[in-house]
Structures are given as structure tokens and as C-alpha cells.
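Board notes (copied after class):
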Amino acid sequence: MTHLQKSLFASAALACGLVAFSSHAATPLPDGLAERQAARVDQRQDLQSDRITQGATSGQLTAREQARLEHQQRKIGRLERRTEADGQVTYREAARVERAQDHASRSIARQRHDRQRPGH
């Protein structure tokens, strides 16, 4: 197989994979999985809010950091409500909420451990 043939084969395989993924991404989650996903998102939001509160109480977060992180949590809550508004959550929507929560979790950890203290 020549280099050109390998490249064409790889491109065709990638295109088929993207088509398969894009059709799967627009597919709604099955009912049981959608319910578990919603419960997981809610639980994670609660835990992240608790982490923010604990960070503020312990002095690990300044008032400004706390306000930014709480704003980020409200944005994720709005994103979650929008994804559930039509009664069906697709794989792509679920992944988007998951990415937003992952990003928020890293932000919380980074801000809690950046050694800034209120009043400094």
C-alpha cells in the first residue's frame, strides 16, 4: 500500500468515525441512563457548592474567588436546565455538562490551593 493509499484509507476511516459519532451524539440518552446522568450532575453540583462553602469558611477562598466560583456554578445550573428543557438529553449535551463540571472542579481546587487569603 502506497503512502497515498494509506492516507486516503485513514481519511475515509476518520470520516466514517465522525459520521458515526455525530449521529450518536445527537441521539437522546436512554431513560435509565438519562435519570442517572441527571442525578450524577445534581450530586456533583451539590458537592462542588459544598467545596466552595468550605473554602470560604476555612479562609482558602477570598470573597472575590468565592463569587466567581458561585457564578460558575450558576452557569452550569442554567446549562443543565437548558439541556433538560426539551425532555431529552443527548450524548453531546451530557458531555458538555460533564466538561463544564470538570472545568469548575479544577477551578475550585486551583483557587482553594493558591495560598491567597482574604484581606491580602
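Comment from the instructor: Residues 3-112 form one domain. Residues 18 and 24 are 10 Å apart (CA to CA).
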